[in-house]
Design a protein that fits this description.
It is built from 14 helices and 10 strands. With 378 residues, it is α+β, with helices and mostly antiparallel strands. It folds into 3 domains: 52 residues; 95 residues, Tyrosine recombinase, N-terminal domain (DNA polymerase, domain 1), CATH 1.10.150.130; 152 residues, Intergrase catalytic core (hpI Integrase, Chain A, Orthogonal Bundle), CATH 1.10.443.10. It has a 3-stranded antiparallel sheet with strand order 1-2-3, with helices on one face. A 3-stranded antiparallel sheet has the order 4-5-8, with no helix packed on it. The radius of gyration is 28 Å and the shape is elongated.
């Protein structure tokens, strides 16, 4: 039977003790300074016991221990090395130093919200969301193992303002044309494929000839190369997709296939020895020099030994992916089709990334006009 009773501790301190039995029938108790708090806890505890979700404070673990359980699960599931590294950084750099010694049962939604708000003062909102995602995963694994009852992270909100939303940086059509024109013949296969497909750099690095249907003019995206050059499947099911390629790219790839370095992996854009190309090499040896040659650059404010301004390339490889999406949208492709081509896991991700590029005002005007015409014709 659950009861609340007043107790005087050996020290002379008066407390209110909530006594109850957990789901296994074991007697549990918790002390409070006020009777109202003890009564409220008892109601919540009895409800949780009835739902089969109650975990006593004494059975809960610290955040540090929960992090260890979470990382063990992630490792056992065979997640990519880069993903494990990211999880470990979130835990070691942001989560453990701040709340690592606290028990999970003590981390209420307000406590987690305070942690997030404090973190937001030192890192970007985007990073706060990523860290909270990891913390939520830590709680989820702890729930699975029965050492915590609820996941308070689910109700925590991170406010974002328009100032927090970064503007998409991508080449204009004039800059794209200059890049295409400045690309040497040897580099055309990679650069043209990147521009006209919008594939991620990791997907281009892991692309195999067996996944390129030059007769049908389609690239089947089935794998990717991580930052450690390990080949694996796309991170989500949406990453596996088919992307049409235009005739010019088909012709370029056909010619490239004849001279492409061969290797055991059969890659389309390998190193000279046929292995996975490093992302940094694609930038420093290919894309950055091409941009500078095309005049798509920015001045660093420094001068070389001859007194001429030193310039850097203006864009990252990911900017070509944004440019491709912009061209798809400009051609009138619907948001759902853009989602598929870009390999986004949800339509919301597509709108969050490229929402401003869709012609909303024109669509609204057309919709209002259509309504007016139907009403007047009736």
């Amino acid at each position: 039977m659950a009861t609340t009773r007043k107790r005087t501790l050996p020290s002379g301190k008066i407390v209110w003790q909530a006594d109850y039995r957990d789901g296994s029938g074991a007697r549990r108790s918790k002390q409070f300074a006020r009777k109202g708090d003890a009564d409220a806890f008892l109601v919540q505890a009895q409800h949780a016991v009835g739902q089969g979700t109650h975990v006593a404070d004494s059975k809960s673990v610290t955040v540090n221990e929960a992090c260890r359980l979470w990382m063990e699960r992630a490792t056992d599931e065979g997640l990519e090395r880069s993903t494990l590294d990211q999880y470990r950084q979130h835990a070691d750099i942001h989560i453990k130093p701040a709340i690592g010694g606290q028990r999970l049962s003590k981390l209420s939604a307000p406590v987690v919200q305070a942690f997030a708000d404090t973190l937001a003062k030192t890192v970007s909102r985007s990073m706060v969301k990523k860290v909270l995602g990891s913390l939520s995963g830590i709680f989820a694994e702890a729930q699975r193992q029965g050492v915590v009852a609820t996941n308070p992270v689910k109700v925590v909100k991170i406010r974002t303002s328009k100032r927090d939303v970064k503007k998409i940086e991508m080449p204009s059509k004039r800059e794209l044309a200059a890049i295409l024109k400045a690309t040497p013949e040897k580099r055309k296969p990679f650069v043209w494929t990147a521009i006209f497909t919008g594939m991620r750099a990791s997907e281009l690095r892991g692309l195999a000839w067996e996944d390129v249907d030059l007769d049908a003019g389609v690239i089947h995206v089935k794998r990717r190369a991580d930052k450690y050059n390990a080949i694996g499947f796309p991170k989500s099911a949406a990453g596996t997709r088919d992307i049409p390629i235009p005739p010019t790219v088909v012709t370029i790839l056909k010619e490239w296939h004849k001279v492409c370095p061969t290797g055991d992996l059969g890659l389309v854009f390998p190193t000279g020895a046929g292995n996975v190309e490093n992302h940094g090499n694609l930038l420093s040896r290919i894309f950055w020099p091409i941009q500078i040659a095309a005049g798509v650059s920015i001045e660093t404010g420094e001068l070389d030994k001859d007194g001429k301004p030193v310039v850097d390339a203006k864009y990252s490889l990911h900017a070509l992916r944004h440019a491709a999406a912009s061209l798809f949208i400009e051609q009138g492709m619907k948001p759902k089709r853009i989602q598929v081509l870009m390999g986004h896991s949800s339509i919301q991700m597509t709108f969050d990334t490229y929402g401003k590029l869709f012609p909303e005002e024109e669509d609204d005007a057309a919709a209002v006009l259509a309504i007016e015409e139907r009403l007047l014709a009736s």
